[in-house]
Structure formats: structure tokens, C-alpha cells
Design a protein that fits this description.
Low-confidence stretches of chain A: none
Structural class of chain A: mainly alpha
Helix content of chain A: over 70%
Number of helices of chain A: 10
Radius of gyration of chain A: 22 Å
Distance between the termini of chain A: 54 Å
Number of domains of chain A: 2
CATH class of chain B: Alpha Beta
Mean pLDDT of chain A: 92
CATH topology of chain B: Rossmann fold
Number of helices of chain B: 6
Radius of gyration of chain B: 16 Å
Helix content of chain B: 25-40%
CATH architecture of chain B: 3-Layer(aba) Sandwich
Mean pLDDT of chain B: 89
Shape of chain A: globular
Number of domains of chain B: 1
Low-confidence stretches of chain B: none
Number of strands of chain B: 10
Order of helices and strands of chain A: HHHHHHHHHH
Largest sheet of chain B: 6 strands, mixed
Largest interface: A-B, 21 and 24 residues
Oligomer: heterodimer
Chain lengths: 264, 200
């Protein structure tokens, strides 16, 4: 494990040369991208440096409460992101709450199970292990849930006449909306299915790359990566299912009507 | 007996009216006066208040899907959820006869995208009749049809009336109302009023 090579800040400045070269090209070719490019690079630097500081403090404190607080903050941001990624969303608290809650339950259940049953750090919530795992699971579940909800809401809005035609023939709300729900579930599942199919052939996953760079035996890194993929797929599946069926329930009512008034 | 008592939504009503089995009530009125919204409220497709009952049994006593099998609403714009026409129908006994009446005998193998507005409308009516409803709510059933097809659809409506089905018919054509309806009423500003000069 001694092959780990530490980077100096000077190395980072050196590596930024190509980014600056891009900005210069953009300026020379009047593409107008240089400001955006440099601004987002600066933003990334500040965000990552701060996260580095925060994580260092949290790891040093090794407190369950602090770890929980960080997890809650992560959920809050991911919930906002789910809401922002939907073109049409449920009104009121549902617009934020449904996506965030399904993501939170799915991500938490899967992460806690794997920590307690498979990885078994002492204590099980050890922030060095729990927080990065939770972050990866949450990030992918967030993408799945927001895609699933976005597809559902757009489809129900567009296909209202088709759904109501089935209701008018005496079908239940679940039967009538099933084609839309199926399409939304597929759209929510697609990224993780594609990721599993391409992993290792097209790209080496970030975490595995990180472990290999820090000197871990590739076979060990692969085992971790498979575990993570199972976690991500499991959590995404649960989260998308919960969010899509929760939203179907909200977008219809007990008299088997389509309630577009509950969506903006 | 089909009975509507104080039915209303935030846009229409309250509306109260009774239609007997085998009777056709024509509802006339300008666009935007609430005719289609009234039908949606009767079919329980929009949140509404008031009561609607069929042969003494209130719709509140049954699940909405059971109600809609008995009280069938054919909207002016029909909805389609599969690519093939045939996937929208149950292949039961009188389907072929019904399709033949509206001159669409071979339509089951067609693509929905290929259908004209008039074809969609005729198929929508056939689809609704398959459940053998006791009440038919028809929203401009012949709006996009030529004279021959209008005759065909009107003869289907007459057949249903002969079977004691209640028909509520929204139409812009006063002559059609005279041909089919036993009574006419007019929708104005969301309220249903007796049509002046209509036959009693």
C-alpha cells in the first residue's frame, strides 16, 4: 500500500495549464466560453477545498451526530436537485418531499444494510466509509428518481386523453396509468443499467480508479466496485419505484380521476 | 331513470335534470358554455359535488370504474393508448357488426396514427358501446363526419334508444336535435336551461 504518491499544490497548477489553454483558445476564437470555463473551474476549486476541510474535521471528530448531520445536508441538496430537474412537478410540499423522501429511504436502507452486514467497520457509521458510500448511492438514486419523475409528469400531462379514455371504459387508475408508469420506471432505471453494462469495458469507475491509484490491489478494488454497483442499482430501483408510484397515487384520486391540478 | 341533482364543479352548475330510459336529451349551447365540462362531471372525471344516480342507485355507492361502465362518456376528442386500433377493443360478438355499421370493418389492423378525425370518432363510439352502457354521453358525435356517416352514427344512436339506453347528446346542429332528441335544453354560462320553443 506504499505506492501512494502525494500531490503538491504546484502539481495542480501545472495540471491546470491545459484548462487555461482552452480558455485562451476560446478567447482567440471569440467563442465566449472563457469566462464560464474559468468561473466553473474556480467554483470547483473552492467547493472541493472546502469539502476537503469539512471532511477532515468530520473524520477527526468521529462523532455519530456530526456524521448524521452531514448525511442530512447531502439529502437536502440532492432533494433540491431532484425538484429542479423536473420540468413539471407536483404542487406544494409534494414537489420537494416525494422525490427527496423516496431517495432518502432507498439510499439510507441500502447504505446502512451494507455497512452493518457486509463492510462492518467499527463503529458501523465510521464517517470515512459511511459518507463516501452514502454520497455515491445518493448521487445515483437522485439521478434515477429525477428522471423517473420527470418522465412520469411529462407523459401524464401529454397523454391525459389516452389515460382518461381508459378510465372512461371502466378501468382503474392503476390500469389506466400503467403504460406511463412503465415508461417512467424504464427511464429511471436506464442510467444504472447502462452503467453496469459499460463498466470495466468502456470506463473504469471513479472509485475503483481511486483505489488503484492509492495502491490497492486491482482485484480488491474490483470487489468493492461490484459491491458499490449492487448498492447503487438496489437503491436506485427502490427510490425510482417509490417515487413513481407515490406520484401516480398523488396524480390520481380515490374516484379514479387524473388530477393534473396537483401538478405545475 | 337517470337523475342528476345539483351537480356542479367550480365552472359549471348546479345542474339538475332527469332522463328516462330510451329518452334522448339534446344539449345545445355556444362553445365554452360548459357542455363538455358537464359531461366530465357526470362521468366523475373532474372533482364535483351533487349527486347522480341510475335507476335509484347513486354513483357514490359504487367505485368510479363501475359507474363509468354504466354511464359511458364519448368525448369530442377520443384518446388512444396503443399503436394498433385493435388493441383498444375486446373481440366480442357484435364488434364486427358495429364496425360494419360505421363502415370501418377492417380498421382493427390499422395504425391509430393513420386514422382521420372522423374515423377516430366513429371508433370511439363503437368502443364505448362495447361495455353495453345504460347511459350514453355523446359530445358532438357527428362533428367531423360527412352526411352518410352522420346518418350511420344517428342510426346507431336510434338503436341504442330502442334498447332503452338514456342518451345525452351535445350538438351544435338544431336539426340533429330535432331528428334524435325527445327534449332539448340549452347550456348558458354553466347552467342548463329549457330551450325556448323546443318541443315539449
Amino acid at each position: 500500500m506504499s505506492t501512494y504518491i502525494s500531490l503538491s499544490y504546484l502539481d495542480l497548477v501545472g495540471a491546470s495549464v491545459f484548462l487555461i489553454l482552452n480558455a485562451v483558445c476560446s478567447f482567440a476564437l471569440k467563442l465566449g466560453l472563457e469566462r464560464q470555463l474559468l468561473f466553473s473551474a474556480l467554483r470547483m476549486i473552492v467547493q472541493l477545498l472546502m469539502v476537503g476541510l469539512v471532511l477532515k474535521a468530520v473524520f477527526a471528530a468521529s462523532s455519530a451526530l456530526l456524521t448524521l448531520m452531514i448525511a442530512v445536508i447531502m439529502i437536502t441538496f440532492a432533494g433540491r436537485e431532484i425538484r429542479a430537474r423536473q420540468e413539471r412537478r407536483l404542487t406544494g410540499i409534494w414537489g420537494y418531499g416525494l422525490g427527496a423522501t423516496s431517495m432518502m429511504f432507498a439510499g439510507t436502507i441500502v447504505t446502512v444494510c451494507v455497512l452493518v452486514l457486509q463492510i462492518e467497520p467499527q463503529p458501523w457509521w465510521t464517517p470515512q466509509i459511511a459518507l463516501p458510500l452514502f454520497g455515491m448511492v445518493l448521487g445515483n438514486t437522485m439521478t434515477g428518481v429525477s428522471l423517473g419523475l420527470d418522465t412520469l409528469h411529462t407523459t401524464v400531462y401529454r397523454e391525459r386523453a389516452a389515460i382518461e379514455a381508459q378510465l372512461l371504459l371502466g378501468r382503474t387508475r392503476w390500469e389506466a396509468i400503467l403504460p406511463c408508469a412503465r415508461r417512467s420506471l424504464r427511464s429511471g432505471f436506464t442510467p444504472i443499467i447502462n452503467a453496469m453494462a459499460a463498466t470495466g469495458v468502456v470506463s473504469l469507475p471513479g472509485m475503483m480508479t481511486g483505489q488503484i491509484l492509492s495502491g490497492v490491489d486491482p482485484q480488491e478494488a474490483v470487489k468493492y466496485q461490484i459491491l458499490i454497483m449492487f448498492m447503487i442499482a438496489g437503491a436506485t430501483g427502490l427510490g425510482v419505484l417509490g417515487a413513481v408510484f407515490g406520484s401516480v397515487w398523488r396524480l390520481t384520486d380515490h374516484r379514479h380521476r387524473v388530477r393534473l391540478d396537483r401538478m405545475v | 331513470m337517470f337523475e342528476i341533482v345539483d351537480l356542479g364543479t367550480s365552472h359549471v352548475g348546479p345542474v339538475s335534470v332527469c332522463v328516462a330510459g330510451g329518452e334522448c336529451l339534446a344539449i345545445l349551447g355556444a362553445s365554452g358554455s360548459g357542455k363538455s365540462l358537464l359531461f366530465r362531471a357526470i362521468a366523475d372525471l373532474d372533482p364535483n359535488h351533487g349527486d347522480v344516480s341510475l335507476n335509484g342507485r347513486s354513483r357514490a355507492e359504487m367505485p368510479a370504474y363501475e359507474w363509468r361502465r354504466q354511464v359511458s362518456f364519448v368525448p369530442a376528442e377520443t384518446g388512444w393508448w396503443a399503436d394498433r386500433v385493435g388493441d383498444h377493443f375486446d373481440a366480442d360478438g357484435d364488434l364486427e357488426d358495429l364496425l360494419e355499421t360505421v363502415d370501418l370493418k377492417n380498421a382493427l389492423d390499422w395504425e391509430v396514427n393513420r386514422l382521420s378525425t372522423g374515423e377516430r370518432h366513429r371508433l370511439g363510439i363503437v368502443r364505448a358501446l362495447q361495455a353495453r352502457p345504460s347511459v350514453l354521453l355523446l359530445d358532438e358525435p357527428t362533428a367531423s363526419l360527412d352526411a352518410d356517416m352522420t346518418d350511420a352514427v344517428e342510426s346507431i344512436i336510434k338503436q341504442q334508444l330502442a334498447r332503452d339506453v338514456c342518451v345525452l347528446l351535445v350538438t351544435h346542429d338544431p336539426d340533429q336535435a330535432k331528428r334524435l332528441a325527445h327534449r332539448s335544453m340549452r347550456m348558458m354560462g354553466g347552467r342548463l336551461q329549457a330551450e325556448p320553443g323546443a318541443k315539449p
